[in-house]
């Protein structure tokens, strides 16, 4: 799945805080990453991912 390769790329940018234009070239065109990030932000994909991860962590007793 292509999202599995794009998620680490977006995660790098969010984790480091570098400007989108400074994302390393090996991650691909920065504009493509930014567009996907914004699209997922607008259609609540990030919220669904967070909710799913929280549910899994709660089921494992990892949330107190």
Major sheet summary line:
none
User: Which geometry do the CA atoms define?
Assistant: elongated
- Averaged pLDDT: 89
For the secondary structure, the number of strands is 0
What helical percentage do the residues reach?
55-70%
Contiguous uncertain segments of 5+ residues: none
Written as H for each helix and E for each strand, in order along the chain, the element string is HHH
The count of helical stretches stands at 3
Query: How big is the Rg?
Result: 14 Å
Measured between the Cα atoms of the first and last residue, the distance is 33 Å
Strand residues, percent: under 5%
Task: Briefly note the structural class of the backbone.
Answer: mainly alpha
């Amino acid at each position: 799945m292509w999202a599995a390769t794009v998620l680490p790329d977006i995660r790098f940018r969010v984790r480091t805080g570098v400007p989108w234009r400074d994302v390393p070239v090996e991650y691909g065109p920065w504009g493509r990453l930014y567009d996907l990030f914004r699209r997922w932000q607008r259609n609540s994909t990030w919220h669904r991912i967070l909710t799913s991860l929280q549910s899994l962590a709660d089921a494992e007793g990892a949330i107190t």
